[in-house]
């Protein structure tokens, strides 16, 4: 597929979660892999529930994930296009006014169910005469507008699910415009997809049932065969099997970011979970491109376990190059000639990125002396006196340890543990051989002598 035009079309009614990120990334990466275009479209025709601050937060979350759109659209600014399309559908008899109230429709459905019939709208409004309509409107009723479906089988070759079909006769004619004149999602979505010449719609499988209606709308507005391709990916659920929701805030991208989860780990998890490629750490989004194959996406709902993500995030950090984190380190004043060797020394010990702050304090700042039973002052004094001359390099540690072994007879934990405690104030951490040159002789010596340094 060359130069596809794809879109991610969230309604800005809440914060996006890992499941939405999955849709966004599949679209974005697909456009990158095939040199296409990625549109971010805010489906904000529902003015009650849509909020500009949600739209902005979604852009921030996407940017954090590395998802940068080529084009950003807001449906709330495009009503003229939808009005024009609605007018054309009315003129061709495909959009018809209906006056039933919600209660009347409900009663109809109950009657159908009682008779064992599917609850499909009976098209009663199609038979209304002009007089009847006038009378209803005189009563103060306003119409909602339904799209008249062609009762035929709609087929499409879904890029994830394969050959798919829906019998339109089993569907109610969908309402496109509410009584108050506002648009439901369907018409604006198709109008924009036509206007933007979208060639492939990648979205969650909760939209499979909308596809027959939308294909018919594409054909009604832009002609036979005008519908784009569709790819409906499986959905993610929580560990307990519930669906994720924008409103509940569960597994929101912002929440994961605030918890210190690496964006590349979120992206890898969002794309790889529920595909045939095992979850693995990545150093850039581009590394996901080879694994990106719509055909390999599983067709069943996949449980998303945050514990797996936290572990992946740590593994991601352990492999990040200095270049890729240079700016983030600088934002915490971790810069200068030590920054690179520092990063390479500590990255393998990080659970979250902000752990660097504590380790930077160990090499550049001050730590309180430790008091632990096995911190024998005589041994530490001997250790301080045995420190080799500066400049320290990667061999300094081995020289020092050799001398200390000879002078004290200590080895193993009895030798190393007090040195680690005194030099770093921590029970565990990066190799002392790489930390020692970063800490330097003055600090090492002071800390071994029990001074704040
Ligand atoms: N606004 C719709 C949603 O958030 C877009 C669906 C689509 O991609 O067509 O689910």
From TrEMBL:
Top EC group: ligase
Positions annotated to bind ATP: 246
Pfam family, one: tRNA-synt_1c
UniProt EC number: 6.1.1.17
Motif ('HIGH' region): 10-20
Limits of the Aminoacyl-tRNA synthetase class I anticodon-binding domain: 376-449
Motif ('KMSKS' region): 243-247
Catalytic activity from the UniProt record: tRNA(Glu) + L-glutamate + ATP = L-glutamyl-tRNA(Glu) + AMP + diphosphate
Primary residence: cytoplasm
Domain of life: Bacteria
Keyword list, A-Z: Aminoacyl-tRNA synthetase, ATP-binding, Cytoplasm, Ligase, Nucleotide-binding, Protein biosynthesis
GO MF assignments: ATP binding; glutamate-tRNA ligase activity; tRNA binding
Domain Glutamyl/glutaminyl-tRNA synthetase class Ib catalytic: 6-300
Role: Catalyzes the attachment of glutamate to tRNA(Glu) in a two-step reaction: glutamate is first activated by ATP to form Glu-AMP and then transferred to the acceptor end of tRNA(Glu).
Record text on subunit structure and interactions: Monomer.
Protein family: Belongs to the class-I aminoacyl-tRNA synthetase family. Glutamate--tRNA ligase type 1 subfamily.
Protein name as annotated: Glutamate--tRNA ligase
Organism for this UniProt entry: Methylocella tundrae
């Amino acid at each position: 597929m060359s130069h596809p035009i794809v879109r991610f079309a969230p309604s800005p009614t809440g914060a996006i979660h890992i499941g939405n990120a999955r849709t966004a990334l599949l679209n974005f990466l697909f456009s990158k892999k095939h040199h296409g275009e990625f549109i971010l479209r805010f489906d904000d025709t529902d003015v009650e529930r849509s909020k500009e601050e949600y739209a902005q937060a979604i852009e921030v979350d996407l940017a954090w994930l590395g998802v940068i759109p080529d084009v950003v659209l807001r449906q709330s600014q495009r009503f003229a296009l939808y009005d024009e399309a609605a007018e054309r559908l009315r003129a061709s008899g495909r959009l018809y006014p209906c006056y039933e109230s919600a209660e009347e429709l409900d009663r109809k459905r109950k009657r159908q169910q009682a008779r064992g019939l599917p609850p499909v709208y009976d098209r009663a409004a199609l038979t209304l005469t002009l007089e009847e309509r006038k009378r209803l409107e005189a009563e103060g009723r306003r119409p909602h507008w339904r799209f008249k479906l062609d009762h035929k089988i709609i087929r499409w070759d879904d890029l994830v699910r394969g050959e798919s079909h829906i019998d339109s006769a089993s569907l109610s004619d969908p309402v496109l415009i509410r009584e108050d004149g506002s648009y439901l999602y369907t018409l604006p979505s198709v109008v924009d997809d036509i206007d933007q010449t979208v060639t492939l719609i990648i979205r969650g499988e909760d939209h499979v049932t909308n596809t027959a209606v939308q294909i018919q709308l594409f054909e009604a507005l832009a002609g036979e065969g005008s519908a784009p391709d569709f790819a409906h990916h499986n959905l993610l659920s929580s560990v307990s099997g519930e669906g994720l929701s924008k409103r509940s805030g569960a597994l929101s991208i912002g929440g994961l970011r605030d918890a210190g989860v690496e964006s590349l780990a979120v992206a890898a998890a969002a794309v790889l979970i529920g595909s045939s490629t095992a979850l693995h750490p990545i150093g850039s989004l581009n590394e996901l491109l080879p694994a990106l194959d719509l055909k390999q996406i599983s067709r069943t709902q996949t449980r998303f376990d945050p514990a797996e993500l936290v572990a992946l995030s740590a593994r991601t950090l352990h492999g990040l190059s200095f270049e890729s984190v240079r700016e983030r380190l600088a934002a915490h004043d971790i810069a200068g000639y030590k920054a690179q060797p520092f990063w390479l020394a500590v990255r393998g010990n990080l659970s979250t990125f902000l752990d660097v702050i504590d380790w930077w304090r160990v090499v550049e700042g001050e730590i309180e002396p430790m008091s632990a039973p096995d911190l024998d002052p005589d041994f530490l004094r001997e250790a301080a006196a045995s420190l080799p001359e500066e400049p320290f390099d990667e061999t300094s540690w081995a020289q020092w340890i050799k001398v200390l072994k000879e002078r004290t007879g200590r080895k193993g934990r009895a030798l190393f543990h007090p040195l680690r405690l005194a030099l770093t104030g921590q029970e565990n951490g990066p190799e002392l051989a790489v930390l020692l040159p970063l800490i330097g002789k003055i600090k090492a010596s002071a800390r071994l002598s029990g001074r704040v340094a």
